[in-house]
Amino acid sequence: MRILVTGGAGFIGSAVIRELITYTQHEVLNVDCLTYAGCLANLASIENHSRYAFSKTDICDRQGIDQLIHAFKPNIIMHLAAESHVDRSIEDPGEFIQTNVVGTFNLLDSALKYYTTLSDESKAIFRFQHISTDEVFGSLGAEGLFSETTAYNPNSPYSASKASSDHLVRAWHTTFGLPTLVTNCSNNYGPFHFPEKLIPLIILNAIAGKPLPVYGDGEQIRDWLYVEDHARALITVANKGIPGQTYNIGGHNELKNIDVVKSICRILDNKTAITKPANLQHFEELIKFVPDRPGHDTRYAIDATKISSELCWTPKETFATGIEKTVDWYIDNKTWYQAIQTTHYQQQRLGLLK
Predict the structure, then answer these.
(1) Distance CA 28, CA 44 (A)
(2) DSSP 279
(3) CA 256 and chain centroid, separation
(4) DSSP three-state, residue 268
(5) CA distance 341 to 266
(6) Is 58 a catalytic residue?
(7) What angle is formed at CA 183 by the lines to CA 252 and CA 240, rounded to 5 degrees?
């Protein structure tokens, strides 16, 4: 099949494309406008493959999107393009509304116009798959899990923009009959993760001997999902999901932020390739508690029963195996993250109210 992936130069999108090119026979068009978090180096392993093509196009460019869809004639559109960092959404909410809401509308409207031109046979296999987040559900208490029927209660500009786009996708299915799929995932981690997020930030700060910032008391709980497991889940949903349905994707790894940070420190303590700063016995000594993020949700946890029972997907990685692989990847890929540090992000604090 022909699969159009938006945001394919980003963290999750590039993992999806690497998985598609390496393990399937599908043809892939990557559509990405290459903002600060889009990096074609993420796709170096498959960039010259005959079944892969790239277009530098913004999803807010309606004419450009129309041209791409009608020229490529996709069987599946996997929509991953998004502004995704909560801290940045606090500093500049407008960018998130533009990309996540207006951009998603553009894609839906263009996809619908294309869909109406298809034969009945082509309509039967066409899917518009929208990739979202568990943050749309808001904050959980000490118990319970987010299910596909949990009411939306977003608390940040980022999660509000993603909730808006989720609602648009469902409306285009219910009102216009576009065969859509929605997935809501827990926190991803793994190779090629832009270093503004918790896990890569902690790894790179520790390697550099810098303080390891932990928001508030570090007691916030997240469910962690290895990015390659997520990529496999998304492809499973694209192939087997029922139009109009939502599927939650989780890693079954609930951990406090402080415990995530400490686990990284313990792994780095045992890496002979890493030299500790002078007078430092353990990397945990670099932990520094800093003012909390405004509106910081306390706990997220995903119930992934539906995708497991109906589509037969379960994650392969535990947090222990996935975080070890992730730390090793950053140790071995200095050139990749140094290019980002030089041009886009120097690991500074973002998202504080002014």
Answers:
(1) 15
(2) T
(3) 20
(4) helix
(5) 25
(6) no
(7) 95
* Candidate list 27, 32, 135, 297, residue with the active-site label: 135
CA distance 322 to 91: 31
Cα–Cα nearest to 323, from 272, 273, 256, 253: 253
What single DSSP character describes residue 183? E
For residue 344, what pLDDT is reported?
Answer: 65
Q: Residues in the chain, how many?
A: 354
pTM score = 0.95
Point out the catalytic residue in the list 134, 223, 228, 229: 134
**193/200 Cα distance (integer angstroms):** 6
Which two structure tokens, joined as six digits, stand for 319? 């947090």
**φ, ψ dihedrals at 155, nearest 5°:** -120, -10
Are 11 and 37 contacting, i.e. CB atoms less than 8 angstroms apart? Answer: yes
Q: Is residue 90 within 8 Å of 40, Cβ to Cβ? A: no
H or E stretch covering 125: helix 120-125
Residue 175, burial from CB neighbour count under 10 angstroms (0-12, 13-18, 19+): exposed
Tell me, yes or no, if 83 is annotated catalytic.
no
Q: How far is CA 115 from each of CA 73, 78, 105, 126, rounded to the nearest angstrom?
A: 10, 15, 15, 8
Sequence-distant (≥ 6) Cβ neighbours of residue 93 within 8 angstroms? 157, 161
Q: Which of 114, 158, 226, 247 is catalytic?
A: 158
Burial class (CB in 10 A: 0-12, 13-18, 19+), 272: exposed
DSSP 285: G
Please indicate whether residue 135 is annotated as part of the active site: yes
- CA–CA distance, 339 with 41 (Å, rounded to integer): 10
Based on the number of CB atoms within 10 Å of its own CB, is 320 exposed (0-12), middle (13-18) or buried (19 or more)?
Answer: exposed
Q: Which domains does the chain have, with CATH numbers?
A: 2-189+225-251+300-305 (3.40.50.720)
pLDDT block averages, 10 residues each, the chain of length 354: 98 98 98 95 98 98 98 98 92 95 98 98 98 97 94 96 98 98 97 94 95 96 97 98 98 96 97 88 96 92 97 97 98 93 67 58
> 């406008």: which residue's tokens?
33
